[in-house]
Design brief:
Blueprint (H helix, E strand, L loop, with lengths): L1 E6 L7 H14 L9 E3 L13 H4 L4 E2 L4 H13 L2 E9 L29 E8 L5 E6 L5 H4 L11 E6 L11 H5 L3 E9 L16 H8 L4 E5 L8 H6 L6 H10 L1 H4 L5 E6 L4 E2 L23 E2 L5 E5 L6 E6 L6 E6 L1
Parallel strand pairs: 1-2, 2-4, 3-4, 8-9, 9-10
Antiparallel strand pairs: 1-15, 4-5, 5-6, 7-8, 10-13, 11-12, 13-14
């Protein structure tokens, strides 16, 4: 499989500009994206992450699998001939859009709100196939402090989807259904979002974590994590060594994956993080966690760890293979054959 992550620095609330920036980065490396199978973007990829309140993020909430992020993913999946996963802030809608091949229950929408005038929002990802059809939708299960001011936990918890990857010569958006099915490779795929890697509310629990337990129980072969993971590194370190990955962050991720590393089943891992800095409040510093950035300078804003990586874990003998990793502040596309 040929997998890519797009790591960049979206600016808070500048959706159109962030989409244009993502398109520019992808265009700059178009030759390396030939025959791509999967492209994964970060958490809340185009809206930015550090929204301080429900009022702040409300103008950027997108109807379930039907807003600007999904439309971008449809265009990009058709253009690149691959599956595309993108994170977005979801405004609950009980009915999937016409382009969806899923039934409402398959979108893991959960129960309808008791009152339609109440706003129900989730931190979500949506996945499109090369025909522009919705093939997976996931809502964040373990919320971080920043999420809790506007989002609800997934009513269904962790979910796993059988994602089909057609042979590369048949990934055209114009291919018929029969040819798309011929020679398809299927991966049992668990999609997760950032804090999902940690215990719920940071309450300590014996390993494996809830996410790793789910991956093991479902015999997952592909784990795709969209993140907005922060760093302790000061701004000066991010700017002076942008191509160096954040060792502390990578070590934390690998430690969290230890039950999978020690497992008998090989799992492809895709960690799609963002980079850069955002203004706004800084949340409590607890347990060296996903969003553990610290104040520096005038005490405002947060800093992201970048360091997106793609590799494999497990398969016997405690295997961990990092096939490729980006720097802490690189805006780039990482492409890895796994």
């Amino acid at each position: 499989m040929k997998i890519a992550t797009l790591q960049f620095s979206p600016q808070l609330g500048l959706v159109d500009e962030n989409i244009a920036r993502a398109d520019s980065i992808l265009s700059s490396c178009s030759s390396s994206l030939q025959d791509l199978d999967l492209l994964v973007l970060p958490e809340l990829a185009f809206t930015g992450y550090n929204h301080p309140s429900l009022q702040s993020i409300t103008p950027y909430l997108e109807p379930t699998a039907a807003g600007p992020s999904t439309r971008w993913a449809i265009r990009t999946a058709r253009r690149l001939g691959c599956l595309v996963t993108v994170g977005y802030p979801e405004l609950f809608s009980p009915t999937p859009p016409p382009s969806s091949t899923l039934k409402p229950t398959m979108l893991n929408l959960g129960p309808e709100p008791e009152t339609y005038y109440s706003l129900t929002a989730y931190n979500s990802t949506v996945t499109l196939n090369p025909r522009g059809e919705i093939v997976a939708h996931y809502r964040k299960t373990h919320l971080y402090y920043t999420d809790e001011v506007w989002a609800q936990e997934s009513p269904n918890g962790f979910t796993t989807t059988a994602l089909n990857f057609p042979p590369r010569e048949r990934t055209s958006a114009h291919a018929d259904a029969e040819s798309m099915r011929a020679g398809v490779v299927t991966h049992t795929t668990t999609q997760a979002i950032c804090m999902d890697l940690n215990p719920r509310h940071f309450i300590p629990c014996p390993p494996p974590s809830a996410l790793c337990k789910h991956v093991l129980a479902t015999e997952t072969t592909l784990l795709a994590l969209s993140t907005a993971w922060l760093t302790h590194l000061p701004s000066s370190a991010l700017r002076s060594q942008p191509a160096e990955f954040d060792m502390d962050t990578l070590a934390y991720w690998c430690n969290a994956l230890e039950p999978l590393i020690d497992g008998d089943r090989e799992v492809i891992c895709v960690f799609a993080n963002r980079c850069g800095e955002e203004a706004g409040r800084v949340v409590p510093n607890v347990l060296a966690t996903e969003d553990d950035g610290e104040r520096d300078g005038d005490g405002s804003g947060v800093r992201y760890a970048g360091s997106s990586w793609i590799g494999k874990v497990g398969g016997g003998r405690g295997k961990l293979v990092v096939g490729g990793i980006l720097g802490r502040s690189e805006e780039a596309v990482l492409v890895v054959e796994v």
